[in-house]
Design goal:
- The protein is α/β, with parallel strands linked by helices and about 325 residues long.
- Helix content is about 40%, strand content about 15%.
- It is built from eleven helices and ten strands.
- The strands form two sheets. An eight-stranded parallel beta barrel has the order 1-2-3-4-5-6-7-10, surrounded by four helices.
- Strand 3, helix 4 and strand 4 form a beta-alpha-beta unit.
- Helix 8 runs parallel beside helix 10.
- The two termini are about 25 Å apart.
Length: about 325
């Protein structure tokens, strides 16, 4: 495994400063945001694709700092019922896939997307319950008329470019838990898998090692981000919470820097379960802790993970 960082929180720094800074902290890989909901400060696919010399400069910058790219990320909603927003997200996704091919990066992270409840919708509609009967009807429309047809085509495009699509399993979108990830992988095939982020599953009550085991072979990327459920707030209101993420005292849960939501034993079990499934890619830190600055949160997460990651597999002689 390799220690990585999603560079989006450092978008105020040029990549020429970000890479040596992270390398000095022991980071081995970077995940670069290419647009969508994320700030594409370090990577603009539409510009790089127009000038191949800029792609070469990026490769040289990475090599000079002994850094690899674990994935390109374009977290958008290509199924948005607003056709202009959907078209923009689709364009960013396809540009990112083409750029990944040019950079010899084999994973593009994104969201599965979420449509509305009908062709007349203006905004996405995330279904979370089975009754009244309107909701199963909405789900049928979303999956059969929108989600599966779109990703059958988009995943084919990625496959043609030698790229795998990794869905960040994220509430608010059609693929938000283990079951929905298993379903879309079965329906679309190995061109799509998971960008596994425990933080979105912790607050749903999911046991992370169990979910990792269930998704064995289809985890293409991993986000290291923690989550802290507030026992008092959750006991009073439950875990479905629409308050601002900056309301740390009032929310039922918030995202935390790795180690501040769950202890070292939990994270050792997570990393060990990843190893059992054969995952040997990047453990990419995504910093979204509202209680810490970007650099403090990243540096604490890096230090926490350094002694937990499993960097090498045992040789055959180990078992003799």
């Amino acid at each position: 495994m390799k220690l990585g960082v999603l560079t989006v929180p450092l978008s105020g720094m040029p990549l020429s400063e970000v890479l040596p800074y992270l390398h000095g902290l022991g980071v081995q890989t970077v995940e670069l945001g290419a647009g969508g909901y994320t700030n594409p400060a370090h990577l603009r696919p539409e510009l790089l694709l127009q000038d191949k010399s800029e792609i070469q400069k990026l490769k040289e910058l990475l090599k000079a700092n002994d850094m690899e790219i674990s994935a390109l990320s374009c977290h958008g909603n290509a199924l948005h019922p607003n056709k202009e927003r959907a078209a923009h997200a689709d364009r960013v996704f396809r540009d990112t896939v083409r750029l990944a091919n040019e950079l010899e990066v084999d994973v593009v992270n994104t969201f599965s997307g979420c449509p509305g409840d009908s062709e007349r919708s203006e905004r996405p509609n995330w279904v979370t319950c089975a009754w009244p009967g309107d909701y199963p009807e909405i789900l049928k429309y979303q999956w059969e008329d929108k989600l599966l047809p779109y990703w059958a085509d988009a995943a084919g495009y990625a496959r043609e470019n030698g790229v795998k699509v990794a869905f960040e399993i994220h509430p608010g979108f059609c693929v938000y838990n283990t079951e929905t990830m298993l379903r879309i992988h079965k329906e679309i095939g190995p061109a799509v898998g998971a960008n596994f982020d425990p933080s979105h599953l912790f607050w749903q009550g999911v046991d992370i090692p169990t979910a990792i085991r269930a998704l064995s072979g289809m985890i293409y990327h991993f986000h290291a981000k923690d989550c802290k459920v507030d026992p008092g707030n959750a006991a009073r209101t439950g875990v479905l919470d629409t308050k601002s993420f900056m309301d740390a005292a009032g929310r039922s849960w918030i995202f935390r820097t790795v180690g501040y939501g769950h202890d070292e034993k939990v994270w050792r079990d997570i990393i060990s379960e990843l190893r059992k499934t054969g995952y040997d890619g990047a453990v990419s830190i995504e910093h979204e802790d509202c209680l810490m600055s970007e650099k403090e949160g990243l540096e604490k997460a890096i230090q926490f993970l350094k002694d937990i990651l499993i960097y090498e597999q045992p040789g055959e002689a180990y078992w003799a």
